[in-house]
Amino acid sequence: MATKEEDVKLLGFWASPFSRRVEIALKFKGVSYEYLEQDIFNKSALLLELNPVFKMVPVLVHKGKILAESLLILEYIDQTWKNNPILPQDPYEKAMARLWAKFVDEQVGPVCFKSVVKADKGIDVAIEEAQELITFLEKELSGKDFFGGKTIGFLDMVAGSMIPFCVARAWEGMGIDMIPEEKFPELNRWIKNLNDIEIVRECIPQREKQIEHMMKVAERIKLA
Ligand SMILES: N[C@@H](CCC(=O)N[C@@H](CS)C(=O)NCC(=O)O)C(=O)O
Question: What domains appear along the chain, each with residue ranges and CATH number?
Answer without folding.
Answer: 8-80 (3.40.30.10), 91-223 (1.20.1050.10)
